Amino acid sequence: MDGVRVLQVAGFKNSGKTAIIRELLGEARVLGLKTAAVKHHGHGGPPALPDPGTDSMKFFADGAAVSAVAGGGIAQVHLDMDDGDPEPLIRLAAAVRPDLVFIEGFKKANYEKIAVARTTEDWQELKGLPNIVLSVVPEEADADGDRAVWGDNEAIRGWFGRWWEGGTGYVRL
User: Fold this and answer.
1) Which residue ranges does the record assign to the Molybdopterin-guanine dinucleotide biosynthesis protein B (MobB) domain (predicted)?
2) Environment class of residue 132 by beta-carbon count within 10 Å: exposed (0-12), middle (13-18) or buried (19+)?
3) Burial class (CB in 10 A: 0-12, 13-18, 19+), 142
4) CATH code of the domain in which 136 resides
C-alpha cells in the first residue's frame, strides 16, 4: 500500500463536522467511491469499549498493542496509539483500499482540510490551521480561497466533486 487520498474535516465541538462528512460520504457513494472514515474522540477519555470479559479486550488489557476480532463480516480493532496523530488510523483504514479516507477532528494534523466554523469567533481561531482547502463559515466571515456558507450542503457537495476531480489530497503511507 503506497498511499491514499485523505480529506480532513476540522472544527470545534458541535460545529457540524459529522454532518458534513455524512453529506460527503453520500456524495462519494454517488461518485462510485469506496470510502473510509476515522474520527478523533474529542469528548475526553477513551471511547466506549466492549465488555472487558471478551477475549479481544483481555488481550488488549494484557498489553497487546493491537487487538482485533472479526465475525459476521465486521471487524473491531483496538489500537494503543497517540491520540494526537491520525496516521495509524489512516494506515488501518487504507488496508481495505478505499479511494478516500475522511478524517474527523485532529485539527492540527497537516492533511488537506475543510475547516468548519459556526461563528466568526470560531473562524478567527481556526483560520490559521494548516492546509485548509475549503472554509465552511458563517456568511459574514471573511475567508480566503474556496469558501461555502455554513449549511449550504449543495455548495459543499459541488466543491467536493471539483476537489475529487482535481486529484489532490494524496498521502503516501
Assistant:
1) 6-126
2) buried
3) exposed
4) 3.40.50.300
Contacts of 13 (CB under 8 A, 6+ apart): 42
What are the grid coordinates assigned to 159, written together?
466543491
Residue ranges of the chain with pLDDT lower than 70?
Answer: 1, 42-45
pLDDT for position 80: 85
113 found inside a domain: yes
Residue 51: inside a domain, yes or no?
Answer: no
The parent domain of residue 29 ranges over 3-40+84-172
Domain assignment present for residue 64? The answer is no
Which residues touch 90 (CB under 8 Å, ≥6 apart)?
Answer: 4, 6, 38, 101, 103, 171, 173
pLDDT tens readout for residues 23-52: 999 999 999 999 999 998 765 667 777 888
Place of cell 473562524: 123
Is there a domain that residue 35 lies in?
yes
